[in-house]
Specification:
Layout: H1 2-7, H2 9-37, H3 46-57, H4 59-62, H5 101-110, H6 126-138, H7 142-145, H8 161-173, H9 177-180, E1 193-195, E2 201-203, H10 219-228, H11 244-256, H12 267-283, H13 285-295, H14 298-301, E3 322-325, E4 329-332, H15 349-358, H16 374-377, H17 382-394, H18 410-422, E5 429-432
Antiparallel strand pairs: 1-2, 3-4, 3-5
This protein binds heme C (3 copies).
Length: 444
């Protein structure tokens, strides 16, 4: 699916700009409010250096108080870690026990591949990494109450065709395909989309792309994820369900699923790879549409959020999030579910497509080129627009009647444009928690 990313780079970049612009500006007052609220008696001595490092490099994503709610967090999947919970994904310790310092140092130094968590080695000094580890540990009482119980890895089963074959058997017995698909790429999986323990969206790993594994791609890393489990996610520890050698065979099997990444391919291989991806997209427009909707961040604007900016349960794509862009007006987002009355159920394909390509809304009025960046959506291929519509048709109906956006009067529009273009001022924009829509006949 890399191709989409390349081809629609403009679309994505523009959307990201709009979305990040909206959240960064919108959340700034909140971040400032939090700053004054920080009072950390625990931060003393070495931890005060850690706190300084944290405030300089980590707050944008992890938030002032370490709750994972920094201004950049809204658009990130997976969501930044909430350090106050004391729960960590990447551990070499028994399930239910906190990570070791070495685990945290490793995650911070190398980053968590496949997420926005950067690797900090070389960017900040090793001493600062140690200091920030102490600081984030001080944010949860867990580290004072519980000692990590490190796991001693058993002797590895050397990779061989035989071990890979046995691993395939273990994969079947343990029903990994339920979440990862028969092929490790989600085909035939019961579900690949989940919520983490904090209520934020996440996806099952694509096993043919080990460069996205948070804990590393080596057989020993993968073995440790089965042995220790991945806290906060549906990935359990298999300590009691599989033997040591089975976990090693399984790790060797997962390693064997690796496909060649684009950056290791020659020009011919790259074009063959993209051709195959195009063919897969055409063969399964709903899957393609779901992918596009995710990367173009449609659910972020078109779902109502609670005060922690989590989608209100059961309301994904049901609209009702309120955006305010001064001085242009208030924009409650539309209901994109297949509900006939309040969603897109009764809309024709062309009506939906003209919103995305021309900004023409259901009552014939036109949306300004913001907050939804339809001018960049309009550059999409016809087959991609069709795929988005095909996917939207499958979104389960939710009744949520959302009010219309305010009409921007010409003088207000001109004043706004003058401020942006001539005075060079940013458009102050805000995202409000809660649902502006009226939910009918549903227990919510
Ligand atoms: C650009 C955003 C971003 C910045 C900046 C950032 N992080 Fe993260 N961090 C993340 C995300 C996203 C995750 C969660 C990834 C996941 O759950 O797979 C994460 C997870 C973590 C984890 C949890 C690892 C685990 O096992 O669960 C640690 C520890 C961490 N970050 C430390 C830091 C520190 C220390 C800094 C500053 C030096 C920092 N991060 C800066 C985005 C960021
Ligand atoms: C209930 C669903 C579920 C089952 C069953 C499951 N997984 Fe996962 N798995 C996930 C999710 C969700 C993630 C993503 C975790 C994350 O993003 O941090 C994941 C992540 C992984 C990873 C990447 C770990 C990393 O470092 O990021 C591997 C490898 C993996 N699973 C293999 C397996 C294998 C092999 C099995 C069978 C023994 C299995 N999984 C069973 C849901 C599942
Ligand atoms: C930055 C926020 C934002 C993003 C991202 C966004 N939209 Fe919108 N969208 C809006 C706003 C605001 C409206 C106007 C409100 C309305 O008409 O109900 C709107 C209107 C719509 C409408 C018309 C709804 C109606 O009831 O007539 C559709 C359809 C739509 N968007 C689809 C999408 C799709 C598909 C994507 C992703 C490709 C997307 N939007 C991304 C904010 C956004």
């Amino acid at each position: 699916m890399q191709q989409v990313v390349l081809k629609s780079a403009r679309v994505i970049a523009a959307t990201a700009l709009v979305v990040s612009g909206v959240c960064l500006v919108g959340l700034a007052p909140r971040a400032r409010a939090q700053q004054s609220a920080v009072s950390s008696p625990r931060a003393s001595g070495a931890a005060s250096r850690g706190r300084a490092v944290y405030e300089q490099h980590c707050v944008e994503c992890h938030g002032r108080e370490g709750k994972g709610d920094g201004p950049a967090a809204l658009t990130l999947v997976p969501h930044p870690r909430d350090f106050t919970s004391g729960r960590y994904k990447i551990r070499s310790t028994e399930s239910g026990s906190p990570p070791t310092d070495a685990d945290l140092i490793r995650s911070i130094s190398q980053g968590l591949p496949g997420s926005s968590m950067p690797g900090w080695r070389g960017l900040i000094s090793d001493a600062d990494i140690l200091a920030v580890v102490e600081y984030i540990k001080s944010l949860s009482p867990r580290f004072a109450q519980q000692q990590p119980e490190p796991i001693t890895a058993s002797a590895p089963v050397q990779p061989s065709a035989e071990s890979v074959r046995r691993g395939a058997g273990v994969y079947a017995t343990l029903q990994c395909a339920k979440c990862h698909g028969e092929d490790g790429r989600g085909s035939g999986a019961a579900a690949t989309r989940f919520e983490d323990d904090w209520g934020y969206p996440m996806r099952a790993a694509v096993l043919s792309e080990p460069w996205t594994f948070r804990g590393g791609a080596a057989a020993s890393d993968i073995y440790m994820r089965f042995r220790a489990g991945v806290s906060g996610t549906p990935m359990p520890s298999y300590k009691d369900t599989a033997s040591e050698s089975e976990m090693w065979d399984l790790a060797n099997y997962v390693v064997s699923l690796r496909r060649k990444p684009v950056w290791e391919m020659g020009a011919d291989e790259v074009s063959a790879f993209y051709k195959q991806q195009d063919a897969e997209a055409l063969a399964d427009p709903v899957k393609r549409g779901e992918y596009l909707v995710d990367v173009l961040a449609c659910p972020i604007c078109h779902s109502p959020a609670d005060q922690d900016r989590r989608t209100i349960p059961g309301m994904r794509m049901a609209g009702g999030l309120r955006l305010y862009l001064a001085p242009f007006g208030t924009y409650p987002t539309g209901n994109l579910t297949s509900d006939k009355e309040t969603g897109l159920g009764n809309r024709t394909d062309d009506e939906i497509k003209r919103v995305l390509t021309k900004g023409i809304l259901r009552d014939g009025t036109r949306l300004l080129p913001f907050p939804m960046d339809w001018p960049s959506f309009s550059t999409m291929k016809e087959s991609d627009l069709n795929a988005i519509v095909a996917y939207l048709r499958t979104v389960p109906p939710v009744r949520n009647k959302v009010p219309r956006p305010t009409r921007t009067l010409l003088p207000v529009f001109l004043w706004g444009k003058f401020k942006m273009l001539i005075l060079g001022e940013d458009v102050p924009s805000y995202i409000y928690g809660g649902n502006t829509g009226i939910v009918a006949g549903g227990p919510r």
